[in-house]
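Task card 7
Instruction: Convert sequence to structure tokens.
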Amino acid sequence: MVSPESIAPISKPGASLGKRLIVGLAGLLFVLVAAAVVLPFVIDVDQYRPEIVRAANERIRGKLELGKLKLTLWGRIRVEVAGLKIFDTAGKELVGVDDAHLHIPLSSLWSGEPTLTFRMEEPRVSVIKSAAGEVNFLKLVPEALPPSEGSPPVAG
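Output:
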């Protein structure tokens, strides 16, 4: 005779799949949150600041000063900029801001159409038109930009 204790209970196959799915999603969520917390400490975006400043200064007639850069990954890729200034060739400040950031929403990456937004908090902008009709901002743009690395030569 078989006792009721020796009979293994019959489990529902769907219940174990549901539990595995929940555990898997919880694990994935944990990994994503851990990455969002740890990666900004591991990836130092400020190391690219000298290269960004050099590349910008090669392409404008003026000077860019860029403050410390910091990465944040909460719901978007965000790089905070602790100050930015653009000077003309005479050394006059054309643009200045103490707090700025650029961000790329993760949803725009998933859609295949990345969107980059640069936002400045309380910018100081100085646009002056001289008596001769020249606008100081337009003097920043050189007549011919130097070719960037990997770009095809311009026919002309």
